[in-house]
Structures are given as C-alpha cells and as structure tokens.
Design brief:
Length: 399
C-alpha cells in the first residue's frame, strides 16, 4: 500500500519545528545573516525540541523518530534558513547516524548519547584544501603508535568547525596505499576538540549561509586512542560514503524547504506588486516562474520521501538519495534565481529574503557531492558502470 499521509507524530514534529523557527529564528535571521553571526543559543533550543537526536533510538539518548522525520525537520528548518538545516546535516546526518551504524557500544555510550541529547555537538571532516570531490586526494595521515593513532593534517570547508566538540575525521592509516591512492588505506576516527594539537578557525570570506559557521581545523600530531577508530582500520572511505547517504537526505529535504520558501515569498510579492495596472501575478511569465517552483517543490519532496522510506524499511538507498539530493539542490538554485526575478530590483536587496535564499542555495549544489558528481552517479547506475555492494554495517531500519 502506498500512503502519503504523515503520522500524528510526524505532523506534530513538523508543526512544532515550523512554529519554533517562525517565532524564534525568522524575526532575527536577516540580522544574524548580515552580521555573519552563528547563534549558538539556538543549539539548546533545538536539543529541547529533540532535533539533535531526532531519529536516534531512545536507548542512545535520541527522540526515536523515523528517517522521514529527519527529512521533515530538515525541510522546516531550511524554510527559515539554510544554516539551521546544516546543523542537522552534520550533527545528525553525517556524524551521529554513522556512529549509530558503525560505532562500538562504548563509542555510542561515550559520543552518540551526549550528541543525541544535544550536550555535545558533532561534525564531519573529509574535505581538505586540496581534495573535495576527489576524496582519495586527502593528505591527512594517521600513524599508529602503540595504543594510539597520531593524526596530522588540515580539514577545510567544515560546517561547525569552530563550534563542534566531536569530529568524525578521515585519514590515511596505510601510507603505502596512500601512495597508490587505494582507498582501503583510509580510516575513520573520532577526534575531540579537547585533544592536544587540535585547533580550528572560521572562514570569514564566505558569501552564503552567513548565519552558519563554516571553517577549518588543523591536527598537529593529535593523539587519538585506538578505541576512537570507527569501524575497522581501512574502512574509512566506505564509512565516509555511508555517512553521505544520510547527509544527502537532509540536504535534499532542506533544499525542498528552500524551494517552498521561494514559492511562498514569490506568491506573496506577486499579489502585492503592481505593474501595467495589474498585480504582477497576472502576467503569464510571472505565473510560469511560480508554477515551476510548485512543480519543483512537489517533485523534490517526493524524491526525498522515497529515499527516507527506503531507510525506514532498511533498504539500500545510495542511488535514490543521490537522485533526491541532485534534483532538489538544482531545483532550489532555479527557484531562488526566479524568486529574485519575481521581486525585480527589490529581490536584489536584502530587505527581502529572496537574496539570502539565492546566496544560500548554491552551497548545497556543491557540498555532499557536487551537481556534476551526482549527474555522473545517476548516469553510471543507468549504464551499468556503478552498482552498490552490500555494506558491513547498515543504518538500522525503523521498527
Ligand atoms: C558551505 C559549505 C559547507 C561544507 N561543509 C563540509 C563539511 O561539513 N565537511 C566536509 O568534509 N566538507 C564540507 N564542504 C566541502 C564540500 O563537500 C566540497 O566543497 C565538495 O565536495 C566539492 O569539493 P571541492 O570544493 O574541492 O571542489 P572540486 O572537487 O575541486 O570540484 C571543482 C569542480 O570540478 C567538478 N568536478 C570535480 N571532479 C569532477 C569529475 N570527476 N567529473 C566532473 N566534474 C568534476 C566539480 O563538480 C566542481 O564543479 C562544505 C562546502 C561548503 C561550500
């Protein structure tokens, strides 16, 4: 049976996130964005709504909702501002759900529980100054010394780099495989901000998601206990890709929320602004832009819902979630460009929110797999050049 009704729990989550974000964030977001200010006081509020562990089981401190709920929360948060959704993407999608699937019981107790409760904030560090799409190009190394790994390297363009307490970090633990670019030489580690040799900073030249924190961190011979190795040595690349399957759901759902925000702002403006004696909504070319926003929103939402449903029932969804992320982010760029267009010169000023939408949407077309990487993935699935092999650890299905 196919059903599109949200459960009572999902409806309640949607309305509580929507009301909270409209009441407590929307009135201040323009000023936060203008001031390039990340408001850390939002984190405890998001924790009290259960968002920081939304689909983590209660046994590990979370709210125990399903993966559709993770998408719904992402959509509602990005409807108000991308910076809010990014918190869910890195903290829940990329980091916590990876620990849930791949972490040892000790790692879950030590790291996942405080993250799901919102006492600690977590992020994901794959990208480096010289490697983004080409993840095998990372240079960070992890050298085993007794009961520790010593990590040295620099991660760049990391969301919440200057805010997070815990970092899921990828590094070469096999130096011969590094020379051969064999990804089975990469391992994943949990690094704490408090570890000696760790330092971070904020990127100040960024022009979008200005109310969000994006930065870099450096590891100068950071000693990481072997207990903080996630998965087995050499499974880091697989873990990095696994994490993206969850992160991409949040990005896809968030981008759908951004399309909806563009649509709503454009509808309101089209009913208010008059040219040639009529509301601009009466002009067919304006109607066309608004109609496309609706079409994109509905299609993007269906695609991420399908991916979330596959996660709920415990089925592999790398292909579907890539499709959802690719479609929704490209659609959000189109919608934001048209929303500015509907607003004319007013859209070119930050007196109206659409300029912020236009700046914010572009990041998601780049991170968690660029538009081009997803285009290639989708073609490769069709052409038979790509198939997904079973993973040793899977995201638990929702019971
Ligand atoms: C706001 C923001 C937040 C981010 N947060 C995080 C984070 O929290 N953690 C993290 O690890 N990273 C994060 N990133 C980094 C992001 O994941 C990378 O920027 C992304 O993977 C692209 O890598 P790159 O910037 O090095 O671009 P490159 O890989 O250098 O790509 C440059 C261009 O070449 C194209 N290209 C590259 N390879 C191919 C190919 N094989 N075929 C066709 N075209 C290709 C790309 O599509 C792109 O258009 C963030 C980035 C941004 C902008």
């Amino acid at each position: 049976m196919l059903g599109f009704d949200l459960s009572e729990e999902q409806q309640l989550l949607t309305s509580s996130v929507r009301e909270w974000a409209a009441r407590e964030v929307a009135p201040r977001i323009r000023e936060l964005d203008r001031a390039h200010q990340f408001d850390a006081s939002l984190l405890p509020k998001m924790a009290s709504l259960g968002l920081l562990g939304v689909c983590v089981p209660p046994a590990y401190g979370g709210a125990g909702l399903d993966y559709v709920s993770l998408g719904l929360a992402s959509e509602e948060l990005e409807y108000v501002d991308t910076s809010l959704r990014v918190i869910l993407s890195v903290h829940v999608g990329l980091n916590s759900l990876t620990l849930l699937a791949w972490g040892t019981e000790e790692q879950k107790q030590r790291y996942l529980v405080p993250q799901a409760q919102g006492h600690k904030i977590a992020t994901y560090g794959l990208t480096e100054p010289s490697a983004g799409s080409d993840a095998r190009g990372i240079q960070t190394v992890a050298i085993r010394r007794g009961d520790r790994y010593v990590l040295t390297g620099e991660k760049m363009w990391i969301s919440l780099a200057d805010v997070a307490d815990h970092f899921l970090v990828f590094a070469w633990s096999d130096q011969e495989k590094k020379r051969q670019r064999d990804p089975s030489g990469i391992s994943a580690f949990i690094v704490e901000r408090a570890f000696k040799g760790f330092s971070s900073g904020t990127l100040t030249q960024k022009w979008g998601i200005l109310a969000g924190n994006t930065g870099f961190f450096k590891m100068d011979e950071v000693e990481v206990p072997v207990e903080n190795l996630v998965g087995r040595e050499g499974e880091g690349f697989k873990i990095a890709m696994f994490a993206l399957d969850q992160g991409r759901l949040t990005v896809a759902a968030g981008a759908s929320g951004l399309v909806r925000a563009c649509r709503d702002a454009s509808v309101a403006y089209a009913r208010e602004r008059r040219t040639f004696g009529v509301e601009i909504g009466q002009h067919q070319l304006v109607k066309e832009m608004i109609a496309h926003m609706e079409s994109d929103y509905q299609a993007a939402r269906l695609l991420w819902l399908r991916a979330a449903w596959l996660k709920n029932v415990g089925r592999r969804n790398t292909r579907e979630v890539s499709h959802a992320k690719w479609f929704a982010t490209v659609a959000s760029e189109r919608a934001a460009g048209d929303a500015v267009q509907v607003h004319g010169a007013n859209g070119y000023s930050d007196e109206y929110p659409v300029g912020r939408y236009y700046r914010n949407c572009k990041g998601a077309v780049i991170y968690e797999g660029t538009r081009e990487i997803h285009t290639l993935m989708q073609a490769d699935y069709l052409l038979g050049y790509r198939t997904d092999k079973p993973s040793r650890c899977e995201l638990p299905a929702v019971e």
